[in-house]
Amino acid sequence: MATLSIGKAWEEAVAFVAREAALLLPVALLFVALPIVLLQEMTPPELVQWSATMKGTMPAVPPSYWLSLTLAILLIWFGSLTLFALALRPGISVAEALRLALHRLPVLIGTSVLAGLLLFVIVILVSAPLILLGGNTGAVIAMVGVGLFVGTRLALLNPVVIDDHLGVLASLRRAWALTKGGFWRLLGFIAIVLVVSTIAGSAAQAVFGVIGGLVAGVDGARLAGGIAAAGVSGVVQVYMLVMLARLYRQAAD
Predict the structure, then answer these.
(1) End-to-end CA gap in the chain
(2) What is the rounded CA–CA span in Å between residue 224 and residue 155?
(3) 140 vs 232: CA distance, rounded Å
(4) 3-class DSSP state for residue 57?
(5) Which of 17, 33, 119, 223 could form a cystine bridge with 230, CB 3.0-4.6 A?
(6) What one-character DSSP code corresponds to residue 179?
């Protein structure tokens, strides 16, 4: 695999987004930001409270919430494939990118399900001995470590799915092979994006939450803050996905 250059990918991503923002941002806002906002509004308050502490038993959640969560994930995956199509195929129209994303979405679903099952088995095999020995902390660290490793090695899965005409297993093998030798660069890149996204999203949520609270009270603060955070997340996602597309091109070449 070619040596990955994060700096080169960033320069190319900034130039591409500046040139094609009119195509990229509406897709990101519609298929990334909007599903996040709608899901936040549909999340039961007791689940939000439990998620903040993770203490006790998870409260009962209506089936409609899980259905909404599934639909939101599918929309976000569909949006990400569309963005990758726009980033990897210069000159493609948004309509063509949407059709291509819809055509390749079943492959992405299949790879995600299979990778999730394999990850679950690996986590059980790694953490079970530690739990039996009474090392719950060690088991948690092991699970996080395995998740980070597998997630990083499959970081180029989406561009592989949208750019190649491969099936589920072949896409997984291709994505895994492309990240060989570039694990630490990809891990550092993903970590930086997560930190930047978290800080920017939290700041936007706080500022617009205050404004919304002054206008419409507690509910307005929650809604305005959620919309602002989701919007910032959508913009960050655009840069992240375009950078991953450029890194994929580097690795594939």
Answers:
(1) 8
(2) 32
(3) 30
(4) coil
(5) 33
(6) T
